[in-house]
């Protein structure tokens, strides 16, 4: 099947296969004799039995031969596969079952003036606005000081996931790069469920997958996350290691870093006094 419905079926199928492979029998009270198992994780019949559905029905779901299941079946699969809240929400988005949400239309991304004013007022806290697929739409001076000069980045490359994987300067500033990169990809896939078959997403994933085995690996895991980015570390060239907690507000995402604290007690050096260019 082609088109949006076909894309949804294939993604639901791949997501279920990936999650099944991650659940060890011991986690759900089944014998964990690895010698008798030919597949990683649970068998299809074990997932189906725990969910109270037929093996044939679940097999066809994993093969992309059926439309997305009902809400009650999704809840049963979530129990069977030990899905967390984000993972279940992702499946519900694909099945058009997300409560109290309308399917989002693709519109031009514009940051309202009050948000620009809020960014300017945050003189001691780095902050940025992320749009669809982690496009960086606006930022304040300290966000640019913390990570990179976003104004110098071409608009088509001003994307948080793209910069994380393709900008050497950003990568050098993230000592926990592998953790940050995996979180970014999980966030990107979660966001993608709101805009199925969007050509912008397809182009971004295709570009990042070309010649980048790390992105390709993380994208193939079908992991999702809708949570905030949590605690982070940055190696700033003037200040040294900085640790901060960041929160993510509702879409368009305002990513706020509360407030960065140098790890070695050099708080007097932060923020740097040099002027920065912002949008």
Order of helices and strands: HHHHHHEEHHHHHHEEE
**Radius of gyration of CA atoms, rounded to a whole number:** 21 Å
Which runs of at least 5 residues are low in confidence (pLDDT < 50)? 99-103, 273-279
Structural class: alpha+beta
Distance between the termini: 43 Å
Please describe what this structure looks like.
Helix 2 (44-51) crosses helix 4, helix 4 runs antiparallel to helix 5 and helix 8 packs antiparallel against helix 10. Helix content is 43%, strand content 12%. Residues 99-103 and 273-279 have low confidence and may be disordered. It has a five-stranded antiparallel β-sheet. It is of the alpha+beta class and 279 residues long.
Defining key terms:
5 strands; alpha+beta; disordered C terminus; 279 residues
Task: Summarize this entry quickly.
The chain has helices spanning 3-22, 44-51, 55-62, 71-80, 85-94, 113-121, 141-146, 160-166, 168-173, 177-192, 199-209, 213-220; strands at 127-130, 136-139, 230-236, 240-248, 253-262. The protein has 279 residues and is α+β, with helices and mostly antiparallel strands. A hairpin with a 5-residue loop joins β1 (127-130) and β2.
Write the layout of secondary structure elements.
Blueprint: H1 3-22, H2 44-51, H3 55-62, H4 71-80, H5 85-94, H6 113-121, E1 127-130, E2 136-139, H7 141-146, H8 160-166, H9 168-173, H10 177-192, H11 199-209, H12 213-220, E3 230-236, E4 240-248, E5 253-262
Antiparallel strand pairs: 1-2, 1-5, 3-4, 4-5
């Amino acid at each position: 099947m082609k088109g949006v419905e076909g894309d949804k079926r294939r993604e639901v199928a791949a997501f279920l296969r990936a999650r099944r492979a991650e659940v060890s029998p011991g986690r759900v009270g089944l014998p964990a004799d690895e010698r008798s198992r030919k597949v990683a994780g649970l068998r299809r019949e074990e997932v189906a039995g725990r969910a109270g559905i037929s093996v044939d029905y679940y097999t066809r779901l994993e093969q992309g031969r059926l439309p997305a299941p009902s809400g009650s079946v999704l809840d049963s699969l979530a129990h069977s596969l030990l899905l967390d809240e984000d993972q279940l929400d992702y499946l519900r988005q694909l099945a058009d079952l997300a409560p109290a949400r309308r399917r989002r239309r693709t519109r031009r991304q514009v940051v309202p003036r009050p948000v620009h004013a809020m960014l300017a007022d945050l003189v001691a806290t780095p902050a940025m606005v992320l749009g669809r697929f982690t496009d960086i739409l606006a930022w304040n001076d300290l966000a640019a000081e913390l990570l990179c000069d976003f104004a110098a980045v071409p608009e088509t490359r001003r994307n948080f996931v793209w910069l994380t994987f393709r900008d050497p300067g950003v990568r050098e500033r993230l000592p926990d790069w592998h953790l940050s990169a995996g979180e970014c990809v999980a966030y990107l896939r979660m966001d993608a469920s709101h805009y199925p078959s969007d050509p912008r997403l397809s182009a971004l994933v295709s570009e990042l997958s070309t010649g980048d085995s790390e992105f390709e690996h993380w994208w193939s895991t079908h992991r999702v996350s809708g949570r905030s980015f949590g605690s982070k570390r940055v190696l700033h060239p003037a200040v040294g290691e900085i640790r901060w907690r960041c929160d993510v507000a509702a879409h368009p995402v305002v990513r706020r870093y509360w407030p960065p604290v140098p790890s070695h007690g050099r708080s007097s050096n932060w923020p740097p006094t040099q002027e920065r260019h912002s949008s």
